[in-house]
Amino acid sequence: MEVLRHPLPLPASVVTVGNFDGLHRGHLLILQKARDRALGLRVPLVVITFWPHPASVLRGRSHLIQTLNQRLNSLREFARYTLLLPFQDYRNIPALDFLAILRDALNPRTILVGEEFRFGRNRQGDANLLRATADLWGIEAEAVNKLQDHRGKVSSSRIRSLLREGRVEEASRLLSRPYSVEGVRIQGEGRGKALGFPTLNFKPLNEILPEGVYAGLLKYRGQLVPAAVYSGRKPTFGGKGKVLEVHLLGPGREPPPGDVAEVIFLEKIRGEEKFQSQEELKKAIGRDVETVREFFRRGEI
Questions:
Q1: Quick check: helix, strand or coil at residue 221?
Q2: Mean pLDDT of 61-65
Q3: Are the C-beta atoms of 211 and 242 separated by less than 8 Å?
């Protein structure tokens, strides 16, 4: 996959447009349809997405599920090109002008979007405008219906709420894969080692960090190591900022300070707690680690 910052002139293509934060099951449905269409027409698939996320520009917050790096890596399975557009440069372009840019540069045979897709200045463009305009231009356009389950629409906002509540198993089912956080290895304070459970400490790069203790995996340079994962504010020690700590349960290559690794959240063990003493905390960590070991003995990955 090639990442583009500006539209690249193409003789023909299939195009899909969206923010694709999280790349959940609903997004996958759109991308799979677009990929199949591109393969059938023997043309490249161009996935268009925006950075920064429109919500961070328009509302000053976004609470993204993925980092940009994670999003781009997720798209590699589908796209020949990912066109990463700077949202600030396109936010005030009229909807029809935006479509004309795509038509003139990418020559799309087909454009696929989600049914709730909005584009152009003040979100004035929608799927109906896309279909009507594409029909005049002789381009096929399809708006894919929102995927639903027994609890409602599968959406990024729903997944964000689940992650903030620490309900990683439910979020992972909607994502079709376990939730993961990228983090930069940093030097810790050595408290875990003093308690008998040494940890690797990370500065999280993702905007959403579920709090509590989890069964998880550390992924570094393609290697996966079972781990007990803690994320929270260390209330026993009066902490305020969130931390991410990983206690490895098996041998594996440890990322050196400054390197980026991925922490994968598999199952919640317990929520954040404040203990009255370090001895209480030590006993709780021991129970947590044994619970995580039992999780992996059951083979529930």
A1: coil
A2: 85
A3: yes
Q: Residue-wise over 140-152: b if at least 16 C-beta within 10 A, else e? A: ebbbbeebeeeee
| Statement: the pTM of the whole predicted model exceeds 0.85 | yes
How many whole angstroms separate alpha carbon 68 and alpha carbon 13?
24
SS3 sequence, 145-159? Answer: CCCEECCEECCHHHH
What's the distance, CA 117 to chain centroid? 19
Question: How many C-beta atoms surround the C-beta of residue 41 within 10 A?
Answer: 15
Q: Is residue 235 very low, low, confident or very high in pLDDT (cuts 50, 70, 90)? A: confident
Could you please state the CATH topology (level 3) that the domain comprising 2-149 is classified under: Rossmann fold (3.40.50)
Residue 37 CA to residue 246 CA, distance in Å, equals 42
| Domain 178-297 CATH (choose: 1.10.150.240, 3.80.30.20, 2.40.30.30, 2.60.120.1140) | 2.40.30.30
pLDDT, tens only, 80-94: 999 999 999 999 999
